[in-house]
Amino acid sequence: MRAVRGLFALLLLLPLVASAQDSGNNAVRASDYSPASEGRVVIRPGEDKTYYEYRVGGEIREIRVEPDVGPVYYLVPAKDGEYIRQDGSQMVVPSWVIFEW
To answer: Which residues contact residue 55 at a Cβ distance below 8 angstroms, ignoring those fewer than 6 apart?
Structure first.
């Protein structure tokens, strides 16, 4: 009886294994995937601060500054090429609920 159950389970899994082998040729590694339109974060350590540059499409959207002592603040580019200091982030990050229990 166990042999029949094992054979039945094997027959059910066989199409999954075959389709996984077929799609393996088109797979992309996570380390190789880097679309140009996606946001990037560049971390630059300083002497007494750490800078997190948030870029979208190659443009800096905001810089998060984490000083060794003191609260975190953000630098947002202004229209004249300067930066405006803010206490909170203005970036909107999309989030979706994939699964809820």
So the answer is: 39, 40, 41, 42, 61
